[in-house]
Predict the structure.
Amino acid sequence: MAACERRRDQGFVTAEAAVVLPVLVLFVTALVWALLVVAAQIQCVDAARMGARAAAREDPPGRVVEVARAAVPSGAKVAVSRESGHVRVVVVARPPLLHGLPFDIREEAVAAVEETVGRSRAGAPAG
């Protein structure tokens, strides 16, 4: 009778493994996906901050975009806008390897424009 019970138990173990393994694979896949999204978000935050710092130093807009693009995931969009005394850099990217997902990662940074020595904000020499 003990041998018969063991055979039935082996069948339950096989059935449980057949249910648990796909769930485990889905869980690990979701974890990897979440890590990729978080890594892309951190890159976007860094890029927006770097771009805002460059824009606050009154670097040319092309240079600001170049500085921000150096830190973003490939295919990201960088937008720079200037408002009264402030600059805003917005970075929008799709998570890498997950292009089919219906969302983008969007981060922005705002910085106050720095006064440069020997020059007013309008670009005319201070005097």
Q: What stands out?
A: Residues 2-56 form the longest helix (55 residues). The CA atoms of residues 76 and 93 lie 4 Å apart. The mean pLDDT is 80. DSSP finds two helices and three strands in the chain.
